[in-house]
Amino acid sequence: MGDKSSPRPSRCIAVIGATGQTGRLVLRNLFAIEGMDLTFQIYVRSQSKLESLFPAISSDDRVTVFQGSIDDHSLMARCLSGVDTIICTLGENENIPGVRVMQDFAKSTLKALEILKERDHDRKPPRLILLSSATWNERLSEPRPAILHWMIRNAFARPYQDLVNAQELLKASPSLLSMILVQPNALVEEAPSGCVIDPEFAYMAVSYEDLAEGFLRLVTDPTYDGLDAVGVSSKNAKNGLLYIPFVLGKVIRGLMFQFIPGYWQTEFAVKGFLGEVFSRKKKQS
User: Average pLDDT for residues 176-185, to the nearest whole number?
Assistant: First the structure.
């Protein structure tokens, strides 16, 4: 008798930012999905870096890699052709001037989708799952004391402004895509404790592993399809007091970047110098 099992659903997912700390974990989780017929179209600036993280990727027939500039609209159009879901985990963590990575992504993505829509007017808009921040969601940030909220917004003012500008561009084009914002608070390096997804609240922190699990659930669980933004947290972060020293350290550093002229250049220069000294000592040993 023939196999009466239903055919596996087919999906094509574009991943932007696959070599970053969040993106590589998201991609690892996507590769491990079973029971779905998945293909992946991955944009990177450096294919060699991607291959160093995923040595078997060049022989994976599910994967097509697109290497180049984010401003190459033709390249982005090829990367987004045929996809039903776009995952973007790009972003800048440092509060330095001239941050445009998210705006560049938004403009290039919209231009690429315009090109694809001109070729196929009946094309269904893809779903964009975009890494954002709980700071820019009134529901999620409402429990914060006002002074802490002011400090956080200013400590990361430049990357936040880039993110907000990008989100506004993307929201203004509903005919080209739909979007759900993934909005954590602080991102921390610690063991996973379980991902908590909720549109109404977010704990103080999320581990990178739990954040990646959140992206996986948003891709695979249709329960979240009707939402436009969700908080993503780690279960451990229910006790927010555990993360106050880490958060305050990041915030104070960001405020120094924001309000002390020349501070960020000096810090970067000192780190670069110390890195060179350490590298020379390591070679000599």
Answer: 98
